[in-house]
Amino acid sequence: MTNGTDSFVFLGHWPSAGSFGFNTDILATNLINLSVVIGVLIFFGKGVLSDLLDNRKQRILNTIRNSEELRGRAVEQLEKARTRLRKVEMEADQFRVNGYSEIEREKMNLINSTYKTLEQLENYKNETIHFEQQRAINQVRQRVFQQALQGALGTLNSCLNNELHLRTINANIGMFGAMKEITD
Predict the structure, then answer these.
(1) Which Gene Ontology CC terms are recorded (predicted)?
(2) Is pLDDT of 8 > 70?
(3) In a domain, 73, yes or no
(4) In this predicted model, which residue has the larger pLDDT, 4 or 121?
(5) Residue of 17, 50, 71, 140 with fewest CB within 10 Å of its CB?
(6) How far apart, in whole angstroms, are the C-alpha atoms of residue 107 and residue 134?
């Protein structure tokens, strides 16, 4: 059995005048082809994958920024509500005789609704971040799977000759026929 360097040595001994030949050492040529295909996939796939991840990272960061802005607005609303609460408390001191319990109820409702709004905004932010992360992961998985499948198909197509391809098709047709007879 020859090693991978024998094919290069063989190439060096080809006559230079008017003849053409093929290297029939399948193992050596397949190793060379596979190494070239794998090198090309790594070279081009790394950039695509890094671009996808960078884009997804920017989208997630934008979503986080938007959520933080929403949170900031909610905090501002909370401060405004607290200011209104202080104002209501001062008015409550003036009107204590006429409706102290009703004012207290309104105050609690206002605080509760503000906290609920703040919690809803926080939950929305967390759900958005989780959704974007899952979507990014799924897109990266799909892209990697698609590239691996294309690479495998390219490798298979380059390795199969016509006779082997026809034998494989005939064998698969025979298996389907046998499966059909079993199910009938």
Answers:
(1) chloroplast thylakoid membrane; proton-transporting ATP synthase complex
(2) no
(3) yes
(4) 121
(5) 17
(6) 41
Answer whether 103's CB lies under 8 Å from 91's CB: yes
Task: List, as one string, the DSSP characters of 114-157.
Answer: HHHHHHHHHHHHHHHHHHHHHHHHHHHHHHHHHHHHHHHHHHHH
pTM over the 0.70 mark: no
The reply to whether 107 falls in a domain is yes
Residue with tokens 């008017």: 18
As a whole number of angstroms, the distance between CA 136 and CA 179 comes to: 41
Q: Give the model's pLDDT for residue 51.
A: 86
Q: Which residue has tokens 């989208």?
A: 59
Give every CB contact of residue 10 below 8 A, 6+ residues apart in sequence: 23, 25
Whole-number pLDDT of residue 22: 63
Distance CA 10, CA 171 (A): 36
